[in-house]
Amino acid sequence: MGAQESGLVETEEQELPSDKVADLVEYIVCGLVDDESSVSLDVTDSENGSLIEVSCSEEDAGRVIGRKGRTIKAIRTLARALGQRVGTSVEVEVVG
What is the DSSP letter of 87? Predict the structure, then answer.
């Protein structure tokens, strides 16, 4: 059983704080768009924090950004709040 336990610990240690934030962003974005299969996230980690780039179809990009940018602003607020809880700085950008 010792080998199994150490395998579980290694898997948990490999998950970065930005992965939790990316999961949240992906969950929110997939709930907004019509074509979930076109949604992809590119996470770039650096010393200063993490950049999450959301790619989706052009029709869905308008939904993700929202009227006057309100939806993406709300997504960024949630992502930054979770980022603070897990100890990382986060930026979210939409790539249509």
Answer: T
DSSP run (H or E) holding 40:
strand 40-45
pLDDT of 29-43, one tens digit each? 999 999 899 999 999
Which residues touch 6 (CB under 8 Å, ≥6 apart)? Answer: none
Asked if 30 and 55 count as a contact pair (C-beta separation under 8 A), the reply is no
Domains and CATH numbers, the chain: 16-95 (3.30.300.20)
Q: Is 77 left (phi over 0), alpha (psi -120 to 50) or beta?
A: alpha
Token pair for residue 15?
A: 């998950």
Report pTM: 0.81
Q: Sign of the CA dihedral 68, 71, 72, 77?
A: positive
